[in-house]
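Task: sequence design from structure.
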């Protein structure tokens, strides 16, 4: 974890320590923040929305062991692609989603 943490700004590290208790999950969020260039606000949002859980919660070696197209597909299979957190308090949002389906 020390090497990953050294690559993040201090504010990211503080948020990770405050919000994520399990070390493997904290490491996962730190790596995702580095790989995806997340701002601190994006990191906090991803933690609060439970991205780790939606990703299947599993640390995988797909990117190292599978060809690029297959590793992306394998990752997609493990995650829940639907997150409607942005619609919690907006009935218009729900009606738009339901009418598109």
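Answer:
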């Amino acid at each position: 974890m020390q090497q990953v943490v050294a690559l993040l700004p201090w504010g990211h590290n503080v948020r990770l320590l405050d919000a994520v208790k399990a070390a493997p999950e904290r490491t996962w969020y730190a790596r995702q923040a580095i790989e995806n260039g997340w701002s601190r606000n994006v990191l906090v949002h991803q933690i609060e929305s439970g991205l780790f859980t939606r990703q299947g919660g599993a640390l995988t070696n797909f990117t190292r062991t599978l060809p690029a197209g297959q590793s992306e597909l394998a990752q997609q299979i493990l995650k829940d692609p639907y997150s409607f957190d942005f619609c919690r308090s907006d009935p218009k949002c729900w009606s738009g989603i339901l009418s598109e389906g």
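The radius of gyration is 16 Å.
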